[in-house]
Amino acid sequence: MSRTTVDYHEIYRDYQSGLSFRQLAIKYEVSDRTIRTKFKQLGLKSRVSTRTDITKTLLKRMYITEMKTIKAIAGELNCGPNTVHRKLRDYGIEIRKTAEFEGSTLEYRSERWGRKGESSGRWRGGMVSVSCVICGSSSLVAPYVNRKIESGERAACCGPECVLMYARRNQKFSNTSIEIKMANELKRRGLNYIDQYLFKDKFRLDFLLPDHNVVIECDGDYWHNLPHVIKRDNSKNAYLRACGYRVFRFWERDINADIVKCVDEVIRAIEKEGEAVV
After folding, report:
1. What is the rounded CA–CA span in Å between residue 70 and residue 55?
2. What CATH number has the domain bearing residue 237?
């Protein structure tokens, strides 16, 4: 039935005869909220509930013992939620808070949310001592944190520095196209190397030649031309040289143009120092 063809005065006569808003909504295929709104606009007063079958005993059983919601009760008794709400108030039955837990016990979500420490549902026997995977020192963690550590979801770290160090050690890398070219050429030339080497838990090196204390970095043309990256690379070079390493940086364009020439430069520098390259 279209809303434009609904005769709300006819609906009101059915309403006065005893049908509830829910029953009217089903009969006329219009929402009960629309019917209420139209009644107010037309000045038609809502009747006072005459339901005598909704007794105090019945409501206590459904609302308190069975812990049903007002909406659920209204559906079972074939009346509106306002009727149930009014009956509860008339019978002096305390209406639950909206945040109340709708379960088998009178627990409130607000109470559960506010629990801390030993009263928290995640508390299991107090703080637990764990050993840091980085420095080995002991620290106390909450039970739920310890469960994450035991399940492998989280690492046992004593502080932010160890967390950062752990992240550096376990960070996964995939070599870029120019790094793959460099690795293939170093292998072809018989040079022993370690790729993505974590240097003193500070930063990673694209390639370390441990037999010759040589570091090779493959720099992308765009990224390594950014001001803050240039500054970082210069600091990295200075630190490595202070530690006794020779640093070779090759641009992406040079590697793509002639990878053999790049590796030749490294070999010449090694031979110049009097070291043999096998």
Report:
1. 15
2. 3.40.960.10
Q: What share of the chain is helix, strand, coil (3-state, %, to 5)?
A: 50, 15, 40
Residues 187 and 254 in one domain: yes
Instruction: Answer whether residue 104 is part of any domain.
Output: no
Q: Which strands sit side by side in the sheet containing 246-251, from one edge to the other?
A: 194-199, 203-209, 214-219, 246-251
Q: Specify the length of the chain in residues.
A: 278
Indicate the residue among 169, 203, 237 that finishes a domain. Answer: 169
86, part of any domain: no
Count of domains forming the chain: 3
Below-70 pLDDT ranges, the chain? 1-4, 47-52, 97-125, 274-278
The CA distance from 93 to 64, in Å, is: 9
Q: Which of 178, 187, 186 is nearest to 251 (CA)?
A: 178
187 occurs within a structural domain = yes
Rounded CA separation 87/72 (Å): 15
d(CA 33, CA 12): 14
Cβ atoms within 10 Å, residue 262: 20
Which pTM was predicted?
0.48
Query: Based on the domain organization, do 201 and 257 belong to the same domain?
Result: yes
Cβ-based burial of 136 (10 A; exposed 0-12, middle 13-18, buried ≥19)? exposed
Q: What's the pLDDT tens digit per position in 24-52?
A: 888 888 888 888 888 888 887 776 656 66
Query: What is the span of the domain harbouring residue 190?
Result: 177-272
The Cα 148–Cα 178 span in angstroms is 39
Instruction: Identify the helix (H) or strand (E) that includes residue 239.
Output: helix 227-242
